[in-house]
Amino acid sequence: MKFCLFASTPDMLQLDFVVKVLTGTPEELCQRAIDWGYDGIEFMPDPERVPEPGVFASAFRQTGAVMPAVNSGRIAAQGMALLHEDASVRRNSIEGFKRILDFAGYFKARVGLGAARGPGIRGASKEEMEQLAEEVFLELAEHAEKAGAVIMLEATESEFTGLANTNEEAMAWVERVGSPSFSVMLDTHQLWTVEPSIEHGIRVTKGQAQHIHLYDPSRWPPGVLPDKEALDWPHIVRVLQAEGFQGSASVVIVPEGDPEPMARKSVAYLRRLFSPAE
Hints:
Blueprint: E1 2-8, E2 22-23, H1 26-35, E3 40-44, H2 53-63, E4 66-71, H3 74-77, H4 87-106, E5 110-113, H5 126-147, E6 150-154, H6 167-177, E7 182-187, H7 188-193, H8 198-203, E8 211-214, H9 233-242, E9 248-251, H10 259-274
Parallel strand pairs: 1-2, 1-3, 1-9, 3-4, 4-5, 5-6, 6-7, 7-8, 8-9
């Protein structure tokens, strides 16, 4: 099990993103993640200025950090959307996502597809939205196959998108697209907010999920506020292990205060929970 920190470039601080992430240069991000007890990062590139992979490859070699997942969330944070009503915005977003796939493919990494799809098109029927989504997903899956990356469709709450809010719906899209480069991922906030139960939300992915976002609905990382957490982390881990989950996980940093001590505390807590001895 590889544990990663959400990470991006310093300009991320200017965006109104839903969770707090670590920021810095590639070398700073990798070294800090390792120093704090993590295995690596889930990087969030600017879709319009995706960095050269060689810079990150050097940082990974120097620090021993890994990047099993790349996050496309800045597409939404920067006012873009894959399913936007403006065709030019839509095309720009698709091309940005392709650049992210190329970056991830260099490292054989997976790319999360969550809020990047956008809230949807006003006035469009369900059939029209699904037709557009199918065209976009097929185009991106084809590009992912060529790039050597895998897209992970993330079921996302309705406040962010009108398409694939549940893991059952996300799995239906995985089957509809039918590409080895188009899969699914998990997110504990979505599991708690949308699914009939956390067990149901995990089990309907049928073992296909290889990555999970771990954070409490309060947007705090696991294990740092035990008296205030809404989620039963030991139970979630037991369900994941019963379903054979062996992928990677990403953790947010605390929304306020010094992130280092809480980041260290969270990963130590998670490693104990996911330990086979437990």
